[in-house]
Sequence to fold (223 residues):
Amino acid sequence: MNSLSRAWAICAKDAAQELRRRIAIASVFFFAATALTLVSFAIGPFGLKPEDRVALNAAMFWIILFFSAATGLPRAFVREEESGTALALRRVAGGALVLAGKTLFNYALFLTIAAIIVPGFAILLEWQIVSLPGLIVVVLTAGWGLAAVSTFLSALVAQAGQKNILFVVISFPMLMPLVLFAISGTLAAARGDSLATAVQVIVAYDGAATCVGYLLAGSVWDN
Fold:
């Protein structure tokens, strides 16, 4: 079995585990729906005027996406330690392959969350997007960086005592640049402005995060 097949196998394993449990996946979507509903009442048609919430919509969109994803993405490696399957997984695949497979699963989970939040945000907040293709590009590229970094940090804190607290402390400074440029790109897409700079920075971030994760995966996971 080649490397890509192994990575896909790990991704499929994680998907099957989450679908069997359902509670963890349901909690992610419940959080997203609750946050989206509350925001819609606070700043949507019943709150601020459309011209007053263009920038706020972009920021709230990524805040909801970020925290919705943060309820599920960090469990990638923590789940293996809690269920006692980490040792078996180490025997069948190296750190880079495990990281790749779990990143693919987390990216798929993020895209599923985004597929729900984007239309919900547009409907409930009457969100007007001038460049929908631009928004899709920003979501796809920033989502990969979010998934890649969250998965790597999950491996880093998997065996720690206070996993959740440690993950938040580490992830905040590492993901903040990505989220800031994602907000900038989303705002540009909403206004119809050029988002080339934001996308270039996001893609560069994605490339750096992917390379660093690949190079350090063995040291973090195999040991």
Residues 3-222 form one domain. The chain is about 85% helix and 0% strand. The mean pLDDT is 78.
